[in-house]
Amino acid sequence: MPEKNIDFGKFGARGIKGSDAVARKLDELAGGIATPVTARRGWTARLHYLTKSAKSRQSAKDAGLTVTDRTLKAWLEGRRSPSKANLARIDAAYRAVRRQNVARHLLKRLNRDGRGTRVEIHPLNQSQVPRPLQRVVEYRAMNVRRWDKIVGAWAVGDYQGLDDAWTIDVLPDLGSQWGQYEYVTNVGFAA
Predict the structure, then answer these.
(1) What pTM value is reported for the model?
(2) What pLDDT score was predicted for residue 1?
């Protein structure tokens, strides 16, 4: 692609990939358990979510939470606590299963029967870039009507697919300056 940033931040610009900002916003819209996984209440709530049915247990195993039923029972009864590594696995499995469970509903809300969702793109931060090297990058707003690839890639944790969907399918709709919005400070939308 002609506008791909190869050496982002070389002169002091700060920001994140637009697709990462979209993934963060989708995670925020997906909601979930607010208590951190390090607190007992947080990990037990996540375990209850992951073990409430046979389907959710299988999804948790597919997402990487492979512990014995005996260990799981001891954790839920409070006789033992998970290690740091297992807490990370619990949190990762919870996020993966939660994404799969809410993706269909979220996709329907974002597509809105073909009307799409208004997206605000906040440009990268150039406050640390020397004045002669700064460029004019405006705040942009656009309507995204095709969320299928974006939400599909997000739901399965395919960040490269999400980045491709964002930079190839969505950003070119901004016109000839779309490459200036590959890195941003924030991408905002509601569903």
Answers:
(1) 0.87
(2) 42
Angle at 42 between CA 41 and CA 46, to 5 degrees: 115
Percent of the chain with pLDDT over 90: 75
pLDDT tens figures, 101-123:
999 999 999 999 999 999 999 99
What is the predicted pLDDT for the residue at 15? 93
Are the C-beta atoms of 64 and 93 separated by less than 8 Å? Answer: yes
Q: Give me the torsion for CA of 64, 69, 74, 76, rounded to 10°.
A: 70
What pLDDT score does 5 carry? 67
Structure tokens at 17: 């990939």
Residue type, 133: L
Burial of 134 (0-12, 13-18, 19+ CB in 10 A): middle
